[in-house]
Amino acid sequence: xxxxxxxxxxxxxxxxxxxxxxTKAPAPNAPMAPSATWLAQAQSQYPLKTCxxxxxxxxxxxxxxxxYVYQQAGQPDRLVRFCCKHCQQDFNQDPAKYLKLIDDAAxxx
Length: 109
Description:
The protein has a domain at 34-109. It has 109 residues and is mostly helical. Strands 1-2 form a two-stranded antiparallel sheet. The longest helix has 20 residues, at 2-21. It is globular, with a radius of gyration of 23 Å. The protein has helices at 2-21, 36-45, 85-93, 95-108; strands spanning 66-70, 78-82. Mean pLDDT is 80; it is low at 16-26.
């Protein structure tokens, strides 16, 4: 009986060690979440009060809105604000089209 308990203890320890060993660290090039400071600054400089996709008021009847950080390799992160998650899906179909609208609004401001 003592041998069975010892064997169980060894198996349990090995199992725990293996599950710990399988825990992966984030990849070195994985995108990082923006800081609260970056987000606050990006929101204050955002040129539109409406959703870039639907033209609905952000924070209006569709709810509080969504802050989306668009990340593209080799480019700085961009804040894009939507009225709802469905507009975020539409944005992802053609990001360049909507980023141009945001850039044009910033130039006009």
